[in-house]
Specification:
Strands 1-2-3-5-6 form a five-stranded mixed barrel. It is about 0% helix and about 40% strand. It has one domain. It has about 90 residues and is an all-beta fold.
């Protein structure tokens, strides 16, 4: 089944970057999947969206003007978004 096109107001998952690597290769906070709401969609690239990311400690805005977030169909890279997995 093909994935739907993102539209404003849809819930997606955003993959956080996590904190920078320490000298021993560990991270204080590793990348994590977070709930997000699509706030805008790039008309020229439907895979690039602006997001309001819901973190446990607050909301993070990732607008198109700041680069937006690009869809990740395979590897869950930091800074990317994907559709929630079906339960």
């Amino acid at each position: 089944m093909s994935q739907p096109s993102p539209t404003v107001g849809r819930i997606v998952h955003y993959v956080s970057h996590g904190t920078p690597l320490r000298s021993d290769g560990s991270q204080a906070f590793p990348p994590a999947c977070r709930a997000a709401v699509v706030t805008e969609v790039d008309a020229d690239n439907l895979g690039r969206v602006g997001l309001a990311v819901l973190n446990p400690t607050g909301t993070f805005f990732h607008p198109l003007a700041g680069g937006g977030s690009v869809v990740s169909e395979g590897a869950r890279l930091g800074g990317s978004w994907h559709w929630p997995e079906r339960a």
